[in-house]
Amino acid sequence: MKKETYKIGGMHCASCVATIEKVLSKTAGVHSASVNFASESALVEFDENVISESDLEKAVDGAGYKLIAKKEEIKMPGMDMSAPHDHMKMMEEEKVDVLKRKLIIGGILSVFIFLGSFANLFSFVPKILNSSWVLLLLATPVQFWVGSQFYSGLKMMVKYRTADMNTLVAVGTLSAYFYSVAVTVFPAFFAKGGITPALYFDTSAIIIVLILLGKYFEILMKGRASDAIKKLIGLQPKTAKVLKNGKEIEIAISEVQVGDFIVVRPGEKIPVDGEITEGESEIDESMVTGESMPVHKIIGSKVVGSTINLSGTFIFRATKIGKDTVLSQIIKMVEEAQGSKAPIQRLADLISSYFVPAVFVIAILTFVVWFFFGPAPALSFALINFVAVLIIACPCALGLATPMAIMVSSGSAASRGILIKDASSLEIANKIDTIVLDKTGTLTEGKPRLTNILAFDGDDKQEILNFAVSLEQRSEHPLAKAILQYAASLDQKSSHPLDKAIIDEAKKEKIDLYKLEDFKAISGKGLRGFLYIEGKKTEAYLGNRALMLDIELDISSFDNQIQKLESEGKTVMILVVNKKIKGALAVADVLKDESIKAVKVLKENGVIVWMLTGDNDRTARAIAHQVGIENVMSEVMPDKKTEKIRELQGQGKIVAMVGDGINDAPALTQANIGIAMGEGTDIAMESANITLMRGDLMLIPETIKISKRTMRIIKQNLFWAFFYNVAFIPVAAGALFPFFGILLNPIFAGAAMAFSSISVVANSLRLKKL
């Protein structure tokens, strides 16, 4: 199965969405289709072996719309991802230009038609404009050229027996226009019985211009809503400086291949994703992570395409290009989120699909009642109210209510480093009442750090560190690396020095290394080596309790101090030099700085917080106590994590799982919302509904806040859209006329319809200020 997002042309309201989805879903080979009115796109999942993109184009074209397929060349490795988007931008600009031209011409003609239609009010108007034939001449181009886009609705009504906003506008304005034509051509017929024939060229022309004016402002505002995507696309550099045969050559980004070595200088954008092979620098990764502080990168560090190199010059090897880069994946995720549907939107679409046919029934009943029971001139009253009902009832605001809010909020979240995969996740996130946090790499940094140095019997802590570093300098164990990194970074700006430079840096920082011989790693217990201390070859050990037992040393005198560290979830290594216990070093996977604050904020918001880990219960509870979590699931094997999530869901909880590793992937999928840490594995991120592009747990309450605000805006939009239609249709039908003598002029109906759509878009744009 292939999943792609395509641009759709020709949509005007929520009914268009239902029609296109119906056509695509019935097409052989299409598994699912979700059409989004706000972003004018369709997210289609289909079997490439059964149906091609050109077949999808034909199916949508047959329904009176246009699906813009992604050309095959876009899929080539290394191809510049901005190409299709530039094409879309050009099409969008052309669409706006045509609409603007139609508005100007239609507006000028409508002013003349309006002035000519009310000669008694405007005595300065030349008499020629009072002629019904001149008005017909002026109104015809407005009706059939300016308003040409509405006639696709008539094709749908005839061919597919369905209706949309275009059908309502086309039938309403054509009724007013052809009635006026009939009065112009056969005035004597309509003058019979003392009825003064009325012309409604002004009604049809002004309605068309007002609706198009609303559409114009809507397009401009919707353009602002998709700013997030445009900014991301604009970040992509166009060229790269590649090393070929020792020479630096500048080539187009589309020509970069995996394995190429690329030079980046200060102030330049990194062209593609890769790994630094030479040099180091500070890099601004804010466009990916939302974090404003530069990140120090060294040999072996991964770099992300389109981020900005701030200081040093470096060379890196390209590892991901084209559609595989982090930026391209972010763009795809945001596009899919904006193109997907929240459950609340499906309800609105369902209502809209029944709403338009119902409006036709109401309009016809209105005409019949006014024609047979209305005052003279009955035909004029019947026609005016028929047109007013059709125009006022266009479900544009209803169709925009949800997707506009989703579009703006998902883009706003992306700019903060929160990637939301689909609209459903955005809706569900505000309902979360239970969060399960994986310990390693989520609550903690995911790598051991040296936290404590104990010196026994008056020994110096610096000397203890000297002995430990000397013993560990040949070890590959993660605990050894923690000690060495601590030693190397005592007075460095970077907390992540190069592994191969650790010993050199230790020497620079006046850590005296003793010569090491006969080094031996003792599996599961520690290590042994011989150090030359003041010229003497001295046996030394560094290890756990089991190693002390093996070498028959009594640690009872120091047991209280060791136990205290172990109770905090730390791994303690005891140092023995010349058969004497000198001290101990504690290493732990330390909590991230923001973990305690994030847990506190979540609990204050009424969320139940659990910690899930494979660690032993003592270590797990020690970490949980530090972070303020009372609910702990410890000693859980990777294959059992899913069961734990299922247990909570069985209690009626809406569960979010937060993790970063491959072993978290099944649990992320099982949870109602899976949240992956951006520093984690690709598999975890693919399994999750939401990805936090930086490992900051404070983004979790931020995600819930965004979800709550989005749902509040959606409900406001839906309320006003429904209220508008329900309240004004009876007024348009003339329900107030018997009591107050009030009728709704179709011109005002058109203005009100345009205003309702603009108000929904404007309300949604408030989400940009989250």
Q: Could you walk me through the main structural features you see in this protein, from its secondary elements to its overall organization?
A:
The protein is α+β, with helices and mostly antiparallel strands. Helices cover 50% and strands 18% of the residues. It has 29 helices and 26 strands. A seven-stranded mixed β-sheet has the order 14-26-25-24-15-22-23, sandwiched between helices. Helix 4 (132-146) packs parallel to helix 8 and helix 12 runs antiparallel to helix 14. The protein is elongated, with a radius of gyration of 35 Å. The two termini are 36 Å apart. Residues 72-85 and 491-510 have low confidence and may be disordered.
Question: Secondary structure elements and their pairing?
Answer:
Layout: E1 2-9, H1 14-25, E2 30-36, E3 41-46, H2 53-62, E4 66-68, H3 82-117, H4 132-146, H5 152-159, H6 165-185, H7 187-191, H8 201-225, H9 227-234, E5 239-244, E6 247-252, E7 261-264, E8 273-278, E9 281-284, H10 286-289, E10 295-297, E11 302-303, E12 308-309, E13 314-320, H11 326-339, H12 343-373, H13 378-392, H14 396-415, E14 418-420, H15 423-428, E15 434-438, H16 439-443, E16 449-455, H17 461-472, H18 478-488, H19 502-508, E17 516-522, E18 526-533, E19 536-543, H20 545-550, H21 559-567, E20 571-577, E21 580-588, H22 595-604, E22 608-612, H23 617-627, E23 631-633, H24 641-650, E24 655-659, H25 665-670, E25 673-677, H26 682-687, E26 690-692, H27 699-733, H28 737-740, H29 746-765
Parallel strand pairs: 15-22, 15-24, 22-23, 24-25, 25-26
Antiparallel strand pairs: 1-3, 1-4, 2-3, 5-6, 5-7, 7-13, 8-11, 8-13, 9-10, 9-12, 14-26, 16-21, 17-18, 18-19, 19-20, 20-21
